[in-house]
User: Fold this.
Amino acid sequence: MFHAPHLRRLALLLLAAPAALHAQTYDLVLKGARVIDPANGVDAVRDVAVSDGNIAAIETAISASEAKQSIDLSGLILTPGLVDIHFHAFAGPLDGTTAGGNRSIYPDQYASRSCTTTVVDPGSSGWRRFEDFRRTVIDVTKTRTLAMINIAGTGILSYEIEQNPYDFDPKAAAETAKKHSDVVVGIKAAHWRQPDFLNVKRAVEAGNLADIPVMVDFGYFLPERPYETMINDILRPGDMSTHFYRWPSPLLDENGKVREYLHVARKRGVKFDVGHGGGSFHFRNAEPAVRQGFWPDSISTDAHLGSMNGAMIDMPNVMSKFLAMGDPLVEVIRQSTTNPAHQVKRPTLGQIAVGAEADIAVFEVRRGEFGFADAAGGGIEGSERLACQMTLRAGEIVFDAEARRAKPWRQADIDYPAR
Assistant:
């Protein structure tokens, strides 16, 4: 028989049980941000809940009591995690003897602080070294790391070695791509100096065999191989021309207008990628084209040691340059998330949707007077700059610029280490 005190205690436990269960519904709720998700047509203030590494709910209001942790993001912008499809991640040993030399960047050292959750290495490795790349980088990074296979079997060991046509093996490249289809998303052709399209044609052949897109760094502009011929006669719908805004790429006519053949190529399905890099982005091409509405399909960094400390800096900085040139914010987000995800045939990435992996970026839009430089030292001014405030990769907070998840140490019960 229960005595009165026991009955009261039991009643309190029964009353508390539903509340306790309710509080455990979500691991985390992100409250009050403007959610911009171009993939699903969302641009509104929403609360986003995360559980078990996935997005669990998107609502106008989710009570903080429903989650183990709640973070107020009022006044900030919440977007899908950025997808950078031109990021050199395979460095090999620092003596420069492996693909990429010592210019590549280990993704986890750089990506998360720039709100980037997925990177695609554009051919640092060819088929000869891809097993090493996968073992030493792709399989061990927290940042989702995908790759394109260089049509040159050695990869970017050096630009000189990429001139060896006997190392272009479409069958070997395609077989490597199919063997590693969970992480290989394209074929890359780059830096070709000869007066023909041999490396591009071999890359397209490999792309056909593996049913994946091709990305081309056009290399050197020669009269014997017009850029127009490549994008309209050789590239297929879905293939990508990177370093698009690089001077002297023939984008503008004598009157400064975007050339008609570019509109034809875009209508046919060819994609144009930024690939800023250390020397491949120039306002002389970019600003007139962007002002005329010829925006990039995908914004990317071409991140490596030579670009990250130069004019490029990171994804938010490159995105801010396009804002300054008149590319609308929602489109800049689309070009940095949804579009690149689709271009590498990973459409489940680059979106904020219930059930999707919780790859999330949180930005502050800073307003003031800002300067932006191109790869040659040319500059423009802008009134807005995107600043990465928080990055979540698979539901885990991997970057938190303003310590929003922290608790006041004087008030919180924090388990400080004993030694």
